Amino acid sequence: MKKITFLIYAFTFAFCSLSYGQYLTEGFETSVPPAGWTANITNTGGPTLTWGQAANPHTGTYSAQVEYDPALVPQNEDLISPVLDLTSATNPRLRFWFNMSYYWAVDPNDNYDFNVSITDGTTTTPLWSEADFGVFTNWVWYEITLDLSAYAGTNNMQLVFNYTGVDGASLTLDDVLVEETPTCLPVTDLAASVTYTSANLSWTDPNGATAWNIELGAAGFTPTQTPTETGVSNPHSVGSLTANTAYEYYVQADCATDGTSTWAGPFQFYTGYCASVPTSNDGTGLGDIVLGTTTFNSSGDVTYEDYTATTVDLGQGVTANLMITYQTGYTYETYVWIDFNDNLIFDDTELVYTGTSLEDDPTTLDASFVMPASASLGTHRMRIGTSDFGQTPPDPCYSGTYGVTADFNVNIVVPACAPPVATAAVNADCDNLQYYVDVNVTDLGDGTPSITDGTSTWTVSGLGVTQAGPFADGTTVTLTLEHGSDGVCDLPLGTFSNYCPTECAEEP
Which class is domain 286-413? Predict the structure, then answer.
């Protein structure tokens, strides 16, 4: 039995060695064009604006690149491979990586193109163009795989990588490989759903395999191609991870008699919330923040505040009080997320507030919001993300310039109280250079409500208008209609100010 097993293994190994045959491999580490390759120069800018070597690799140290000609003359640059010997091939394929600008090549501009074709010296057949790829991100490396099975058995074909355009941008090419298509293909679409100490790993397998090998390690580790676990299922759960740590993993399909695939990966995941630490702020950033009835004091001129040591109770289905003081001198975009499903990701559906502060320094933004009645009970992470600009769409992981992020823990509870209901409006008294805020109470709730600005209190004696004030003209005040016995049901009324016209102040 052992001999039979060994013979099957030896046969499979020999078969896989043949099926993984390489007919061309080029990483452009020595020169561009490399030995055996040719480049056609057609632009008037000369050799520096055609195919050349660049220190912008996908792997290794160098790649092949065409720079655009700032003289805005037509460019039509070919990089042509050596003749391919595919006489022993049965199912060859072409793989390469490219990097270019979607903005200048596709939309909104169509100023240059990247075309790949194959030629026998007489007939040239198109294989692929960047227009076939769909939407992609500027200056990100992408891999393309093309079927060359139609050319199996030939020994006179050459690949042509072509840059064509006027007033375009750079195009970079790396890791060109012509090989036999494996009978056991690598998996794709690696993913991970995480907790603080575990991860559920998953992927897409094109082979119908039922077992896979994985190699897992800390982010940036050097893979050994020796599995840390073998014969795992898909999805596969790993535990005993360290919280707030970045990991990477690779996957290899086990196709039984068809051997194993090449390793796919790495895929990186983080056992915690994504970091959001902007590189700068304006002024001194954020001042104090009031959440519910709790005041969180700023630690100073910083770009990230961690307030998670104190958990704040917020009621399901009632208004959550949130007052944010800005000391920036600029308007700041403001977003608030709550991770209701506790998956360590602030999803788009978990965005509970969007607004913009004033440019006054200081200024207080009333970012209060109604907690969804369907919000899951218990403790969840809340994040306030702010920035001068750059969060379109809102980005809970923003770490760009001019911003401040703050994290909190909130405990969603079923309110044991009924909140009061009211609206408020400024009532100016310019004769005396002051103003009041008229609070129209339409429901007292089940408490004994009163109005407060944090210093003074005005008792609400019944339904109708209760006047808070006076406040000096030109000042700002933030008011809350307190429930009277349960802070969960306090109602934020907002932030108010008034500026009397000069002529009003001068009248006798």
Answer: mainly beta
Higher pLDDT, 9 or 173: 173
SS3 150: helix
Residue 227 and residue 220 in contact, taking contact as beta carbons nearer than 8 Å: no
Predicted structure pTM score: 0.63
| Average pLDDT over every residue of 453-482 | 95
Q: Do domains 23-180 and 188-270 have the same CATH topology?
A: no
Beta bridge partners of 214: 229, 251
- DSSP letters for 346-412: --GGGEEEEEE--SSSSEEEE--EEPPTTPPSEEEEEEEEEESS--SS--TT--SSSEEEEEEEEEE
CA distance 213 to 324: 50
Residue range 238-252, pLDDT digits in tens:
999 999 999 999 999
CA dihedral 160, 164, 168, 172 (to 10 degrees): 10
pLDDT in tens, 279-289: 999 999 999 99
Higher pLDDT among residues 71 and 229, named by residue:
229
Q: What tokens does 356 get?
A: 């913009």
Q: Determine the CATH number of domain 421-506.
A: 2.60.40
**In CATH, 23-180 is 2.30.38.10:** no
Q: Which fold has domain 188-270?
A: Immunoglobulin-like (2.60.40)
Delimit the domains of the chain by residue range.
23-180, 188-270, 286-413, 421-506
For 133-159, write each residue's pLDDT tens digit.
Answer: 999 999 999 999 999 999 999 999 999
**SS3 per residue for 42-87:** CCCCCHHHCCEEECCCCCCCCEEEECCCCCCCCEEEEEECCCECCC
Query: Quick check: 81 and 87 in contact, CB under 8 A?
Result: no
